[in-house]
Amino acid sequence: MQIIEVGMLGVRASVLRLTRRDTPLRFDVFPMVHIGEPAFYTAVADRLRRCDLILAEGVGGESASSDASGRRRRAARRSVAISALTAGYRLPARFKRSGLVEQDIRYEKLGVPVRYPDMTDEQFAAGWRRVPLWQRALTLVAGPLVGLERLTVGSRRALARHLELTDADWHDEFSDLESVDDLLALLGDQRDKLLITAMDEIHQQRRDEAITVAVVYGAQHVTPVVHGMRTLHGYSVRSPEWLTVFDF
Looking at the record's lineage, which domain of life comes first (predicted)? Predict the structure, then answer.
């Protein structure tokens, strides 16, 4: 299954519609590339307005037990770490290198309820602390350097070089799973676990409603979602739609 395609003319993302034979609930999964042409993000936003609920990527929520000073400290650490991790595409986008911009969909203006089943600041901080110190230091240095290199010499073709994505490496991983617990034990990424847990809850609670739930996450998160929901509840991909992220 092709998720992000890099072809002769440019980069395309496949919007994957997940449906199930016995229930009207459906999920529209949008594999996001975080730098692209403004028209790509406009096209995604237009489709999101037709949905009934949006599950969106976004690290940074807080647990109810968090105190104010702890929230500020964790938010500051998250900001530094995420800035370094995303500098590779943020810097070219900020200066609109090759006419490309950073993803900026304003969910609050779409008129659709939004949930963020992503890591809280506490969860992100705990995970970041588990990363070896030398790797954290390398990330803080290397991320901005990659961004600067792409800003100065990166073309659209150079930015597209590592975007191609399929589910080839995952296809057989889910064949023996029988429960949510089995699935979550297989997944190594905590953010994938949180997202699939949220989708599973929606299925359990609203599967008899004729609604469309949009899932707007980075493309790397799409394969676990698609195969996980197929294994757990029999959802399959129907009528994929291609959107151009940027052309060459």
Answer: Bacteria
CA pair distance 243, 61, nearest whole angstrom: 30
pLDDT tens-digit series, residues 77-110:
445 555 555 555 555 555 555 678 888 899 999 9
The CA distance from 74 to 77, in Å, is 5
Structure tokens, 83: 């800035």
Instruction: Supply the pTM of this predicted model.
Output: 0.75
**Distances, alpha carbon 206 to alpha carbons 73, 136, 179, in Å:** 38, 41, 19
Helix (H) or strand (E) holding 215: strand 212-218
User: From the CB of residue 176, how many other CB atoms can be counted at a distance below 10 Å?
Assistant: 9
Exposure pattern of 46-59 as b/e (b: 16+ CB <10 Å)?
ebbeebebbbbbeb
Tally of helices (H runs) and strands (E runs) in the chain? 8, 10
